[in-house]
Amino acid sequence: MDNKELSLSKKLLVSYKERLENEILKRSIKLKIPSKVCQENINNNNEINELKKLINELDNLTSKH
After folding, report:
1. Number of H helices and number of E strands within the chain?
2. Which residues contact 45 (CB under 8 A, 6 or more apart)?
3. Per residue in 31-57, pLDDT tens?
4. CA trace torsion 48, 43, 53, 12 (10° rounding)
5. Percent with pLDDT over 70 in the chain
6. How would you label 38-58 residue by residue, b for 16+ Cβ within 10 Å and e otherwise?
7. Distance of CA 36 to the CA centre of its chain
8. Is the CB of residue 1 less than 8 Å from the CB of residue 46?
9. DSSP assignment, residue 32?
10. Would you give the distance in Å from CA 52 to the centre of its chain?
11. How many Cβ atoms sit within 10 Å of the Cβ of residue 20?
């Protein structure tokens, strides 16, 4: 993979992660869940955590190239 592909992959993953976080926020507001609990849900979400790891790995790859 070249830097352009890595950057694009990273952008897509970041975008997806943000959409997931926003969806959790929207649903929490709709259900009147306290913001602290909502933030805990985001922080403990397995999919979001995996995305963060992948984004971090892509950051490391792009910095090596």
Report:
1. 3, 0
2. 20, 24
3. 999 999 999 999 999 999 999 999 999
4. 40
5. 95
6. beebbeebeebeebeeebeeb
7. 18
8. no
9. T
10. 5
11. 15
